[in-house]
């Protein structure tokens, strides 16, 4: 038993040494796997070191800011309704869907799906415990959801007042998001979490703001165009439908948000954080 523990400790020391030796690349060369991983682990640990109040406020901010994507989604849907087919409208929403994500990620607010893999890496690297990871996830999710509730209430009121969309628009979007079997929403959410984890990795790999904006736009536009379920945007979409339409009931909202959160977490933590980390570990051991 002692020998096995010693081997694990030696392996962890080798991993830490290899990460420490990952040097910054020249300006004109791409970052290495080790450099990106090191940056992600450091950024993840910085989030762990923040106070709970700071984390909650930052995640609440992200929940509010994602509402700008929803505002544009509703406005574009209402503007195009009757001019082109509804299927075409749904696909065209991918043009405006990324705006809230750009605001959040460049503004460094804490969005659960973008931070899932980032926050998992310090745990995989044995710098943080599973309990601390779960507590941090809980805080981020709570802040994102509360921010989403607040912006949903505001937009459900202001949209009709400005005549930029109406309650029927809100209802149609909410029904479109939830009109799937639970297993479909879950698998769709895993794929969305995978994409968002990749987004975080690719943003860390980029060297300038313009590249980051382009990466965020492409990844989130793909997510929207394919109709994959994102828990935090979906929270605003479905909750807005819940408070303004009889077609969305509370149980349906709870089922959606639970499946979407779990699926997004699994996609980001396993398909990005674990696989990227293990690929690096096997390279070190090799």
From TrEMBL:
Membrane-protein topology: Multi-pass membrane protein
InterPro entries: Aquaporin-like, For/NO2_transpt
Region of interest called Disordered, as start-end residue ranges on this chain: 1-32
Basic and acidic residues composition-biased segments: 7-32
Subcellular localization(s) per the UniProt record: Membrane
Alphabetized UniProt keyword annotations: Membrane, Transmembrane, Transmembrane helix
Coarse class of the protein's main subcellular location: membrane
Membrane-traversing stretches: 55-79, 99-124, 136-160, 180-202, 214-233, 253-275
The keyword Membrane belongs to this UniProt entry's keyword annotation: yes
Protein name: Formate/nitrite transporter family protein
Gene source species: Aequorivita iocasae
Higher taxonomy: Bacteria, Pseudomonadati, Bacteroidota, Flavobacteriia, Flavobacteriales
């Amino acid at each position: 038993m002692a020998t096995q523990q010693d081997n694990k400790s030696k392996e962890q020391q080798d991993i830490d040494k290899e990460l420490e030796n990952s040097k910054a690349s020249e300006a004109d060369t791409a970052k290495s796997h080790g450099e990106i991983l090191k940056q992600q682990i450091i950024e993840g640990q910085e989030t762990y070191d923040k106070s709970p109040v700071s984390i909650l406020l930052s995640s609440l901010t992200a929940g509010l800011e994602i509402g700008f994507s929803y505002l544009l989604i509703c406005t574009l849907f209402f503007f195009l309704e009757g001019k082109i087919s509804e299927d075409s409208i749904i696909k065209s929403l991918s043009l405006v869907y990324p705006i809230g994500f750009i605001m959040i990620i460049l503004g460094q607010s804490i969005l659960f799906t973008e931070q899932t893999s980032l926050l998992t890496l310090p745990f995989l690297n044995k710098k943080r415990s599973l309990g601390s990871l779960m507590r941090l996830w809980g805080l981020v999710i709570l802040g994102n959801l509360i921010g989403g509730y607040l912006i949903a209430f505001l937009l459900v009121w202001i949209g009709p007042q400005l005549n930029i969309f109406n309650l029927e628009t809100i209802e149609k979007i909410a029904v479109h998001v939830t009109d799937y079997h639970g297993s479909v929403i879950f698998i769709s959410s895993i794929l969305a979490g995978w994409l968002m984890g990749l987004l975080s990795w690719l943003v860390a790999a980029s060297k300038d703001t313009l590249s980051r904006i382009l990466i965020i736009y492409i990844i989130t536009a793909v997510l929207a165009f394919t109709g994959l379920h994102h828990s935090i945007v979906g929270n605003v979409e479905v909750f807005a439908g819940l408070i303004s339409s009889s077609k969305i009931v509370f149980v349906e909202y709870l089922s959606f948000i639970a499946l979407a959160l779990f699926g997004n977490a699994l996609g980001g933590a396993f398909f990005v954080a674990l696989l990227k980390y293990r690929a690096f570990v096997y390279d070190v051991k090799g």
